[in-house]
């Protein structure tokens, strides 16, 4: 037995009557919205619904407009891509959109042009992970965002600043929570590790939260902000030695924490297990303690509202993502 209208109705979550009207080309005369019509036709196409046995449904004979959100990730093999993808796909389907993924790992020297080519797929919005953008290409990327006619939503900082559509984490609060957590565990010598450029918005806010926590605990005499200065993006033995001797520290760079762990394994050495780092997606297993994170996967509906120009009043009021404690074993919720 073939796919029936009842099957399409069940999959789309709509009534059989509504589905029947759409599939029999009576949507307009019955004032069924374009969004609902699009959802039904997309589900019907997905299920290979073909109408009666004597003829195909007319809607299948006409070109279908697919509404698609493009997701550009740093790498398909990154720490979060395999786990966040099902959540993204489910959230897109929920609002009647398809998702199209692309990785720019093999095109790092010209990231901005890669994004430009991606827009030629006639997609309706882009969600972009800017973590691998260099300084030079960040400038081209910002110009590209201004030129394209579709919404582009960066998941974080671009060229050390937030763009109007960026998903903004409350980094100061995160730095405070991370430090306060370690202090509550009895550590009186907590360091803060920041990236190569100490005065970026990211590092400034994160370290400010760190200082806030030390001031609250009357421990400002133990302020220890360490700037990571890599040579060709490689951890030096001197830098690792300065880190390995720390009893506890906070760090906002997922990449740096991973590199520290890799370096330690190769050198058969250890770093402190008392680490708190900021997780945008899902925490790593390098630290044993709970971690304050910005679970973007829990806010994917908000990300998609920005990518489809459907920003609501709540989005306007709550510009920054509020951090919350999540653990290394914290799994992804059902979409």
Automatic annotation (TrEMBL):
Q: Which residues form the HTH lacI-type domain?
A: 3-60
The record's annotation in InterPro entries points to: HTH_LacI (IPR000843), Lambda_DNA-bd_dom_sf (IPR010982), Peripla_BP/Lac1_sug-bd_dom (IPR001761), Peripla_BP_I (IPR028082)
CDD domains the UniProt entry points to: HTH_LacI, PBP1_LacI_sugar_binding-like
Q: Which UniProt keywords apply?
A: DNA-binding, Transcription, Transcription regulation
Q: Name one GO molecular function term.
A: transcription cis-regulatory region binding
Matching Pfam families, A to Z?
LacI, Peripla_BP_1
Superkingdom per UniProt: Bacteria
Q: Which PANTHER family does the UniProt entry name for this protein?
A: HTH-TYPE TRANSCRIPTIONAL REGULATOR GALS, LACI-RELATED TRANSCRIPTIONAL REPRESSOR
Protein name per the record: Transcriptional regulator, LacI family
Recorded source organism is Sediminispirochaeta smaragdinae (strain DSM 11293 / JCM 15392 / SEBR 4228)
